[in-house]
Specification:
With 425 residues, the protein is α/β, with parallel strands linked by helices. The chain has one domain: Aldolase class I (TIM Barrel, Alpha-Beta Barrel), CATH 3.20.20.70. Helix content is 27%, strand content 21%. It has helices at 54-68, 86-95, 111-120, 148-162, 182-191, 222-228, 243-254, 294-308, 322-326, 337-346, 398-404; strands at residues 16-17, 27-31, 72-76, 99-104, 124-128, 167-174, 198-203, 207-208, 213-215, 232-233, 260-264, 275-282, 288-291, 319-320, 357-366, 369-370, 376-377, 385-388, 391-394, 410-412. Helix 2 packs parallel to helix 3 and helix 3 crosses helix 4 (148-162). The longest helix has 15 residues, at 54-68. The protein is globular and about 70 Å long.
């Protein structure tokens, strides 16, 4: 299974299964444009229709509010920041009492635009930067370490304008080529904990285009599929990275200062972690004091739903008092015993009494994949669902609806043995 180190397969019984569902989910996904200013390997969106009308998007926001009960709206594309009506769209979402979260490659992120977005009610920015993107602000052959100054520039800008009130997350698609740099990104994030709320690592996936596999799109060749969809992959050895591989890499580098505490499973393999969520308490110097445990995660979700009628995904502010960390003992979070000891020890210094600590999340996403029998293993209670013709569909496979009017089903033929390596050996 996987390719890195799976001797430590985290037990689901020791983690909190997030209670999200299709109709009660903190995240809703809004596709506003399929135009982009860079190219990413495995991109799930082809340029077919351009910018969508603002009035149509407002109707979708209302639909998502009624049918999804979200805490926030993820504004995606394409590249949202080049959408001409992005500021009024953010203002409309905020006027509905929802958190507008923009997912961007940051090339068009400027201070004047950011100030306008913040005034309109922007709640968060997720910055997608990785070394396999084709982008003019990153050099050919650059590594993730070479891109750290670009991440720093954008984190500094978001801090300058948002002053911590805008949730700032950095995500990275994980390929074989950049897997080794994940610890460098985490160390950078911890060093910038005041400015960076969270990190997300997304395991690269693609629709296998291999011998022995065909799809039920009639009269469409494999070559045509590769032109129609940006997420096909002929080399299945590139799509075998599991969320547990990333988890074990983090455990090897950060030990007890990192742990996962919540998850969403998959519709296929019972052991899968499609979303594996963790969070650490980090002080202002960037020192991790220990992880948040499953009881604390459960308390956060349940209490937020009790108070606001919605589950929560993006925190507006991630600084908390040290005494609040000690409170986790009252709710029986035994995973946080070491965290509480370190926080209590820090209080021997009176200067720390008024100094906050920070909750910094690390999310690992294992995107949809084909199983050996040809069925797709999707994310349970998919958080990233968007609207298609009056229904909710998986945003990562929206182009199948746009091209063919439906999800494509794989047909695995018996002409070759094990035609689809699904990342589990």
């Amino acid at each position: 299974m996987g390719f890195y180190n799976n001797d430590r397969w985290p037990e689901k019984s020791e983690r909190y299964r997030l209670p999200w569902s299709s109709n009660d989910n903190p995240i809703a996904w809004l596709e506003i444009t399929d135009v982009c200013n860079i190219h990413c390997k495995g991109c799930y969106r082809r340029n077919l229709s351009g910018h969508r009308p603002l009035a149509e998007l407002k109707e979708e926001v209302d639909f998502l509010l009624r049918m999804r009960n979200p805490d926030g709206i993820s504004i995606a594309g394409g590249e949202p920041l080049i959408y001409p009506d992005i500021v009024p769209l953010v203002g409309h979402i905020a006027s509905k009492g929802l958190k507008p979260i923009i997912i961007t490659n940051v090339r068009a992120l400027s201070e004047p635009l950011l100030r306008d977005l913040v005034r309109a009610g922007l709640a968060g920015v997720t910055c997608h930067i990785d070394m396999l993107q084709e982008r003019s602000d990153g050099g050919r052959g650059w590594t993730e370490r070479d891109l750290l100054p670009l991440r720093q520039e954008k984190a500094d800008l978001l801090w300058k304008v948002g002053r911590g009130a805008v949730n700032v997350t950095f995500n990275q698609t994980v390929y074989h080529e950049n897997f080794q740099y994940i610890p460098d990104i985490v160390r950078w994030g911890r060093a910038n904990v005041r400015k960076v709320h969270g990190l997300v690592f997304i395991c690269y996936r693609g629709m296998p285009i291999t011998e022995g596999v065909s799809y039920d799109a009639r009269e469409v060749s494999k070559e045509q599929l590769q032109q129609d969809l940006g997420y096909t992959e002929s080399d299945t050895g590139q799509i075998d990275i599991l969320s547990v591989d990333v988890y074990n890499l983090l455990k090897d580098h950060f030990g007890d200062s990192y742990e996962s505490s919540a998850y969403l499973g998959g519709t296929g393999h019972i052991k899968d972690y499609k979303w594996l969520i963790g969070a650490s308490i980090v002080d202002g110097s960037g020192t991790a004091l220990g992880p948040i445990g499953p009881r604390a995660m459960e308390f956060t979700q349940s209490s937020h739903h009790w108070r606001h009628g919605r589950y929560v995904s993006y925190l507006a502010r991630h600084s908390i008092s040290r005494s609040l960390v000690l409170f986790s003992g009252l709710i029986g979070d035994r995973v946080m015993r070491g965290t509480r000891r370190r926080v209590a020890r820090s209080l021997w210094n009176p200067l720390n009494w008024a100094r906050p600590v920070y909750v910094q999340s690390i999310g690992i996403v294992q995107a949809p994949e084909m199983m050996e029998n040809g069925t797709a293993s999707m994310c349970e209670s998919c958080p990233d669902m968007c609207v298609w013709k009056g229904n909710l569909v998986n945003s990562c496979r929206l182009d199948e609806y746009r091209r063919y009017g439906k999800l494509l089903n794989a047909i695995v033929h018996n002409t070759v043995e094990e035609p689809v390596p699904a990342g589990r050996r």
